[in-house]
Amino acid sequence: MEQRRDSGVEEILSNGQRGYLFTNWAKTFSCTPELFFEPETIEDIRQILYAATQLHKTVRVVGGGHSPSDIACTDGYMISLKKMKAVLEIDYDKKQVTVEAGLMVNELNELLDDHGLALPSLSSVSEMSCAGAIGTCTHGSGKNFGIFATSVVSLELMTANGKVIYCSREKNKEIFLAALCGLGAVGIILSLTWQCEKAFNLQETTKPLMLEEMLENLESSLLASDHFKFHWYPHTGYVKCYEVNRTTKPIDDTPSWFWDYAVGFYTYELVLWLSSFVPSSLQYVNWAYFKLFDCKPHSRVNQSHKVFNFNCLFKQYVTEWAIPQDKTVYVLRKLQSWLNESGFHAHAPAEVRFVKRDDIYLSPCYEQDTCFINVISYR
Asked: Using the 8-state DSSP alphabet, how is residue 291 labeled?
């Protein structure tokens, strides 16, 4: 028998959109939720949760849709916070900024830059919401830097019953540590306060190395720069090492449209498409790309967020593995051996990053320094 609805619930549901098609950035997952909402206030969210509770519906919150997984997908109610992106407070003395959860990280970067501030570490991608970034363990790289969520000092969230909870390391600590990488399961994050620092430039120096040479000197490389990472080019035996350090040097970064876009994007995309008909040619494609773009040392200086961020190029399937940092050499050697023996044809690059341990309950870095290996397959 169809459940009777009171007039209040009917009014709330009338604000939802039917037939909305959600697709993630990579176009690897999509769904059509029963209703799609774009609330503008905290009370709007409370009303949606009330209706969902009355009708026994599940609720998922979506951010920028940049996750390579189907974490946002639902056949219930979907909430987008893109209309809740206000800047609530800037505390210059503490270098803290409080924003609504729907603000995109790339928008936050520009905001902070306008106020002479910056986040201490960023991921390779900033086209995601603030809440989504901390809720899914987004991270950058650097032996002494934690995941993105470790820069959050407090947040407000709403639980399923409509209650708003303020939490931090001083108040409601257990809820705070559960929500930081909570995958949206603890509640809907409404706002969060970021611990920033004075804006800074980064000098990025890249150089090619043989994979085995890099593995033999991994620990010294991690200690030698603030934000070390490397890109591994399967089937070539080479890696591109990134040594990234804070600097007082002025900006010196001149992109090339021809190499970065005409060749590095459009021509590369065409070659990858052609290689899909002859997968064995991928080893030659990887070699060619490495020789054209990454076989020579290069250095640039720019604002921190412009160096941290990386062009992901094309739509792609992605899997990322988190392993204990002290197992990095063992795992990569095993992967190299498997590639050599299996005949599997892998796209490049595989991004390898390093993150400091934390105490966040669902973090892959919980109580262990961690290596993240990000493997892609272009679509």
From this structure: I
